[in-house]
């Protein structure tokens, strides 16, 4: 085909599209511009550079074989003309030119294009509050910002920090500050839980509790009202339900999300959604067939809801870059959308998920139910194991899997399970598909009945009416009201497990091992709600079946058992 290909943006999608196009069409002239000084770097690695896990910033800009992805690399190795420190000012669709300006010389010129790629990414949102402009207030925007943050930390000028926002970047930065640098760190979040858009309240409580144990403080349900200081940030004033609170802060990290950089597209008359994302089809073409867009600046289809959504992830941008590279050269590659798979490491605990939480499903108008399970991530007799906690969100009626989230200290094991479910999501799996999902088995890696299979089985039982469960939060609320006498708490474990609770809550906590329950039904009241607990929810489910068969109709099973309740920090004190 030949001709001119111009790519605006040189971080994730842009380099992938440019290099793919040049490989497929060596006769094409490919020019990639970016206003940053550094191009083609791993932005998702910034928190790990700040923490010191990545020692040199060049590592984020290097290939796996240690070549720095700079201007010379793209010219000599890829045949792409890379122009950092060059800002795209406007697009003339009729003349098919892009007006650019060198940030070093101020010289402007027009670049001709036959096909154009918008890989303009996104920008961090900055809260419009007093003091946001003070020195010491930072957003995690690019490598330059990351280097400035790390320089401030290494200089010893930072003793306390406030991170505004408990999403991925906010929590990762909190870990970096508290773990490597020993900074007194507080995370402020307007929502009542951490990771509020991707993790259920019970799983979020587990993540928060683990981070608190590592020294990170949280102010949830709070809003940063202003930042104060004499010539630099010194404190953050919060607005809470009970009034104002002031927290010392030598460093303030703004991590309240990002917004698509779609100004060029909008000014050029391209379709942009009300949320600000560039509108594209499955070929990642915009409303102009010669202009493509992807990555953080574009919206894609949510494979669960069928609606368009904004998902700024480097993994998506790289996959989309290959699709665009194909189509720049006359191909017909498609990007159907995404289910939103994610993972994050928080000290020694990992969290991961795909699809919708229960709240998100209900906001989307879906009749959904949540199911929680806890189980060892590998054979119970294998010495190196840990509990994994998973939550399934499924649609009533269709029994379709809408999402799965989980936490576990063994992150690779967790991400492997979520990855398996993620691969199913484009095919609209049901809980039966999870029950029958074939996963590799060997005791050092999994159980013969894998936790994903158990999750599908429990989901099937609940959707079929064979089980009725409550989560750890509902259990904690019921136990807090135990003096009302409305609930009867029945521990289905063996007596040694139940003994501490029997001693502490005499007359309020009861114990009948599951294997003895059928012969001791007369000890269970029929005029109170019977709350069944065991370690993981398995024996209490068997007890539920026994009571249901005997005609008990006011019985609930604590999902995930005491392992889940304890991990979330909601277990009764003993």
Automatic annotation (TrEMBL):
The keyword Thylakoid does not apply. Residues 483-574 form the Rhodanese domain. PROSITE patterns: RHODANESE_3. Its cofactor is FAD. GO terms for molecular function: oxidoreductase activity. Keywords: FAD, Flavoprotein, Oxidoreductase, Redox-active center. SUPFAM superfamilies: FAD/NAD(P)-binding domain (SSF51905), FAD/NAD-linked reductases, dimerisation (C-terminal) domain (SSF55424), Rhodanese/Cell cycle control phosphatase (SSF52821). InterPro entries: FAD-bd_OxRdtase, FAD/NAD-bd_sf, FAD/NAD-binding_dom, FAD/NAD-linked_Rdtase_dimer_sf, Pyr_nucl-diS_OxRdtase_dimer, Rhodanese-like_dom, Rhodanese-like_dom_sf. The keyword Transmembrane does not apply. Belongs to the class-III pyridine nucleotide-disulfide oxidoreductase family. This is Rhodanese-like domain-containing protein.
């Amino acid at each position: 085909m030949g001709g001119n290909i111009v790519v605006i943006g040189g971080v994730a999608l842009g380099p992938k599209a440019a290099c793919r196009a040049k490989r497929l069409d060596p006769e094409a002239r490919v020019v990639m511009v970016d206003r940053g000084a550094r191009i083609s770097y791993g932005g998702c690695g910034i928190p790990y550079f700040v923490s010191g896990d990545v020692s040199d910033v060049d590592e984020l800009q290097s290939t796996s074989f240690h070549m720095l992805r700079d201007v010379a690399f793209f010219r000599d190795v890829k045949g792409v003309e890379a122009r950092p420190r060059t800002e795209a000012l406007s697009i003339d669709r009729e003349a098919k030119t892009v007006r650019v300006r060198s940030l070093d010389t101020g010289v402007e010129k027009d670049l001709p294009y036959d096909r154009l790629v918008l890989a303009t990414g996104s920008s961090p949102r900055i809260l419009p509050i007093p003091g946001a402009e003070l020195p010491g207030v930072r957003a995690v925007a690019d490598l330059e910002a990351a280097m400035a943050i790390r320089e401030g930390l290494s200089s010893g000028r930072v003793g306390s920090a406030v991170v505004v926002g408990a999403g991925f970047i906010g929590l990762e930065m909190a870990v970096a500050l508290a773990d490597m640098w020993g900074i007194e760190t507080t995370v402020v979040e307007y929502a009542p839980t951490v990771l509020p858009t991707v993790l259920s309240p019970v799983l979020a409580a587990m993540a928060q509790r683990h981070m608190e144990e590592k020294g990170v403080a949280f102010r949830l349900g709070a809003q940063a009202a202003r930042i104060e200081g004499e010539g630099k940030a010194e404190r953050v004033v919060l607005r809470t339900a009970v009034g104002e609170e002031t927290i010392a802060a030598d460093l303030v990290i703004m991590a309240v999300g990002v917004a698509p950089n779609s100004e060029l597209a909008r000014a050029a008359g391209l379709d942009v959604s009300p949320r600000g994302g560039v509108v594209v089809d499955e070929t990642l073409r915009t409303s102009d067939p010669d202009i493509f867009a992807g990555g953080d600046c574009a919206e894609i289809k949510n494979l669960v809801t069928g609606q368009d959504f904004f998902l700024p992830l480097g993994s998506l941008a790289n996959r989309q870059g290959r699709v665009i590279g194909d189509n720049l050269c006359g191909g017909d590659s498609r990007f159907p959308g995404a289910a939103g798979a994610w993972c994050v490491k928080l000290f020694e605990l990992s969290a991961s998920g795909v699809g919708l939480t229960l709240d998100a499903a209900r906001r989307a108008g879906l009749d959904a139910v949540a199911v929680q399970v806890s189980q060892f991530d590998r054979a119970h007799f294998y010495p190196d194991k840990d509990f994994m906690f998973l939550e399934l969100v499924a649609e009533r009626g269709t029994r379709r899997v809408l999402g799965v989230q989980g936490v576990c200290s063994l992150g690779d094991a967790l991400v492997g399970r979520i990855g398996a479910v993620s691969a199913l999501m484009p095919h609209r799996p049901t809980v039966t598909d999870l029950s029958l999902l074939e996963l590799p088995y060997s005791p050092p890696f999994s159980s013969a009945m894998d936790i994903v299979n158990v999750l599908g089985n429990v989901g099937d039982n609940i959707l079929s009416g064979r089980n009725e469960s409550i989560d750890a939060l509902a259990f904690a609320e019921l136990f807090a009201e135990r003096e009302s006498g409305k609930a009867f708490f029945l521990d289905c474990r063996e007596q040694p497990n139940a003994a501490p609770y029997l001693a502490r809550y005499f007359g309020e906590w009861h114990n009948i091992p599951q294997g003895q329950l059928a012969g001791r039904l007369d000890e269970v009241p029929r005029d109170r709600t019977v709350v069944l607990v065991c370690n993981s929810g398995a024996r209490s489910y068997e007890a539920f079946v026994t009571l249901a068969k005997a005609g008990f109709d006011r019985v609930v099973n604590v999902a995930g058992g005491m392992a889940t309740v304890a991990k979330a920090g909601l277990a009764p004190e003993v």
